[in-house]
Design goal:
Jelly Rolls; 5-stranded antiparallel β-sheet; 4 helices; 327 residues; mainly beta
Amino acid sequence: MKNIFFISFFIVFKCYSQNLVPNQSFEIVDTCYDLGNGFAYGDVAPWDTPSSGSSDAFNTCVVTQTTAVPANNFGYQNPHSGNGYGGAGFYDNSLNNYREYIQVQLDTPLIDHQQYCISFYVNHSNRSQFAVNNIGMYISDSHTYIPGGAPLPYIPQINYTNVISDDSLWIEIYGQYISHGGEKYIIIGNFFSDSLTDTTHVHGSGTTLGSAYYYIDDVNVHCCTCDSTTSLHNEVGEIKEEEMEIYPNPAVGVDIELAYSVIKPGDAAPATSLQCINHQVVSDARFILSLGETAVGMQIVLFARYVYVKHPKLSGAFGVAKTAVVS
């Protein structure tokens, strides 16, 4: 009986973590006329800007030169993928400590104590006179808006410390992050003051921009450890038969609503396994697991501790694990 539960656990939870960033390559735009300052105007929803800086979007559908692709007012570049990319100024030689950023809410909050793989691509626009380092990402619990164009008062968890001056190649910025749980927003930009930013003069004064302007594409945030059956098995430990409960048959078409906001701090991997099952986010604290399309005979192990389950046939707090047998 124990072996059946372990095998079922591996079958269900050996899933591949997906990118949590919506509109990750800026393909979806609300206009094809001009995407200048498009993040502030809501033209690349759900992306926005956390400050008054005028970050731009670019797309092959745009009919004006300003933010067209590949040739635009900031340079010439094809997308890293798809038809669009973002753009922001990370340094301005004529404006003291001026910065531009882009921000988005993730599809789901991060799970606590998991390792997330973070990446995005940047390209230095070939009409920029300057190139800089300290291009990074800040991962936040809440939405940010601070008026003005000053560097945001945050320390980025992901930061590239080398100057990026390549005008032709897309450069990947990559890092890993251990979550504390509940993080929902990411911000991309230069979070350091002019005095703490390395600047390189790469083009003559005849170029268009007296700044360091960068294109941004293919932003990715995904869980590195959520698809590891080995790590999940180690976190669960040995599951004893008397700790299991079988969900009443039949289970086809039954939705189980879980409130994971009541998980106690310090519980081992409280929602890791739950994320791997198809679910619908109801709010920041609730989501629904659907068993409607689950194959007959599949056993689903819900590993969580102290998660309240609301259902006519099942309610209360989980212990170490429960299973749902689909018939």
